[in-house]
Amino acid sequence: QKSIAYHDPQGNWKGFQGNFKVTMEKPGEPDRISDIKLDFLEEQFILKVSKQGDHYQFSLDKDSCVVSLNGNTKPASKDVKRLRLTCDRGTMYRDYYTYLYGLPMKLLDPGTQIDPLVQRKAFHGNTYRVLRVTYEATVGKDIWYFYFNPSTYALEAYQFYHDEDKNDGEYILLEAMETVQGIKMPKVRKWYYNKDDVYLGADILN
Question: In 3-state terms, the chain is what percent helix, strand and coil (to 5)?
Fold first, then answer.
């Protein structure tokens, strides 16, 4: 609750209506620029992606879905396969962006199982208050840890495991904050493998 009060002091997330742009950087690959529109009141999600000369869009409006490539709503099958231009992919993107940019508010969602024990952990040079989170089987199978600044309660890192004993999965370090529609969202998210700390890339809020 204290972390939500820090990130979303006016309770704007539930009725979020707005746009934001994210640049994805990955080592050795061209940047991918994503223009995202979220409108929870109208049940709309629109994602416009630009990468290597391709411009494709996923539009989810209540129960309808339209996918297009360079303005064409019936792209060639080879392009559908190459860019994974399916409604299932659009739904995945919607869930991905609303989950990660909706944290920590999304931890109030049904099916979220928060361990009552608040841990204290050292992680990448800082000491955090840490919550372990699992989900009901119908929601998700991964195990998550969320790292909160002990003074401000800002969410500054999180990690997930598919199998914690194998030390698989990834961790994400959050840098700086950008205010979008009154909500403090991470300006930069840097992704790493848990097992060997290999840097995977970054999402940068523009």
Answer: 20, 50, 35
Q: Which residues of 95-114 are buried (b: 16+ CB within 10 A; e: fewer)?
A: eebbebbbbbbebeeeeeee
pLDDT level of residue 26 (50, 70, 90 thresholds): very high
* 8 A C-beta contact, residue 170 and residue 191: yes
Q: What is the pLDDT of residue 153?
A: 98
Average pLDDT over residues 164-181: 96
Instruction: Round to whole Å and give the CA distance between 135 and 106.
Output: 12
**Distance from first CA to last CA of the chain, Å, rounded?**
27
Question: Which amino acid is present at 44?
Answer: Q
How many helices, marked H, and strands, marked E, lie in the chain? 3, 13
pLDDT band at residue 198 using 50, 70 and 90 as cut-offs = very high
**Sign of torsion over alpha carbons 167, 90, 26, 17:** negative
* Longest CA span, the chain: 53
Which SS3 state, helix, strand or coil, does residue 2 take?
Answer: helix
Predicted local confidence at residue 168, as pLDDT: 97
Instruction: Tell whether the torsion through CA atoms of 159, 161, 93 and 115 is positive or negative.
Output: negative
- Quote the pTM value: 0.93
Residue 11 near residue 18, CB atoms below 8 Å? no
